[in-house]
Amino acid sequence: MTRTGKDAASRILGVAVALFPPDRRDWGQAMRAELAALEDPAARRRFALGCLRVALTRPSTLRTLGYPALMLGALAAAVWWSGRIGYGPLRWAVLAAAAALLAFVWWGRRPGALGPVGPGRVPRLARACGCMLVCALVLAGAASVASNSNPGEQAAVGVPIYTAVSAGYLFAFLAVTSRATAHRGAVPARTLAVGGGVGGAAAAIWVAVLATARPMPTATAPLIALIAGAVIVAAVVAPTSRRASGRPLTGRAKDGLIAGLCAGASAALLAVESLTALATYGPAAMIPDLAPVALTRADDLAQSRSEIQDPYVAILLLGGLLAIALCLSAIRVRRPSP
Q1: Res 32: pLDDT
Q2: CA atoms lying within 13 Å on the CB side of residue 75
Q3: Which helix (H) or strand (E) holds 90?
Q4: Per the UniProt record, which residue ranges are transmembrane (predicted)?
Q5: What is residue 334's three-state secondary structure?
Q6: pLDDT: which is higher, 254 or 22
Q7: pLDDT for the residue 137
Q8: What is the mean pLDDT of residues 80-102?
Q9: Residue 335 has pLDDT above 60, yes or no
């Protein structure tokens, strides 16, 4: 004797079956048939819950449900954190910026110029790292505007600038890691690896300089030279790799351009965020005395921690320009002719 009524076990199994991808719907049919053969209510519930556990732990299900949950969690965190901002227009500006950037991330999951992410570990890792870097930039920007003594100016100018720069970086990371379409080819994984690797190495060199100097240097000219060197190295290495040797000359030139822009943008962003972390949390011995007229040593240190970050705004904007160029170059990658 079989049961076909819509009891709790049937509803639970219905949810589990709905979570399976189309190529696994035959699993759902088999589960329904096995559930129909069970009579004991407890056994039916145990079986349905087991099927639901299997469906929820599948990687495809985790990706499907994880993104919405992550987006909602991030938005809820932004609403909670912004409660400490007393000036209403500034709080709403911060929330609008957070919602817009989260919408762009969601857009990156849809088929188009920014998504979805390409297959393979390199594009997925590059996109994840890029999104985390942008997240760190947004958090630092939000903390900066929230602590500023002129909230009206920050709501009208500071938040839009931070949002535009963050969106530029985000668009670049999404576009360069998106999968191929009928009209556009994907950026090769080796190009992403070279660009990200060279950019990360350049940023690591600068972090080593900052961490070992006492106090930290205030000039940014050496960093600009380091970023330029990263762009050149990546642009030269990517087209000459062994796997790229069989590609047409135009394809190799495009690989070099994208790798160079990727290296420059990632090096600039990593260097700025590293400096921000060291200036905010580093020991006092690392901080140069940039406010000698301060009334107390504590005021001198606090003002110096803030002022040492000012020259890096230009580095952040430079990286933003490289990111915009990277985004446009990645979008214009054409699928090779068969």
Answers
A1: 85
A2: 14
A3: helix 88-107
A4: 65-83, 89-107, 128-147, 159-180, 192-213, 219-238, 258-281, 312-331
A5: strand
A6: 254
A7: 92
A8: 91
A9: no
Give yes or no for a contact between 331 and 254, defined as CB atoms under 8 angstroms apart. Answer: no
For Cα atoms 159, 161, 162, give the angle at the middle one, nearest 5 degrees.
65
Query: Which is nearest to 262 in space by CA: 117, 100, 129?
Result: 129
Sign of CA dihedral 9, 14, 15, 20: positive
The letter for the amino acid at 332 is R
CA–CA distance, 1 with 6 (Å, rounded to integer) = 16
For 46-53, what is the mean pLDDT?
87
The pLDDT value given to residue 338:
42
- Cis before 338? omega within 30: no
DSSP code per residue over 53-79: HHHHTSHHHHHHHHHHHHHHHHHHHHH
Residue 139, CA distances (Å) to 78, 132, 135, 142 in order? 10, 10, 6, 5
pLDDT for the residue numbered 45: 86
Nearest alpha carbon to residue 272 among 302, 227, 304, 231: 227
Instruction: For 58, list phi and psi in degrees, rounded to 5.
Output: -70, 140
Q: Inform me whether the pLDDT recorded for 196 exceeds 70.
A: yes
Q: Which tokens is 89 given?
A: 């227009």
Q: How would you class 3 by CB atoms within 10 Å of its CB: exposed for 0-12, middle for 13-18, buried for 19 or more?
A: middle
Phi-psi region of 119 (alpha: psi -120 to 50; beta: other; left: phi over 0): beta
* Average pLDDT over all residues of the chain: 86
pLDDT at 1: 41
Token digits of residue 329:
């170059």
Nearest Cα to Cα of residue 170 among 68, 97, 255: 97
So what's the pLDDT on residue 224?
Answer: 96
Query: In the numeric block, which tokens belong to residue 10?
Result: 């049937």
Taking the model in full, what pTM does it have? 0.80
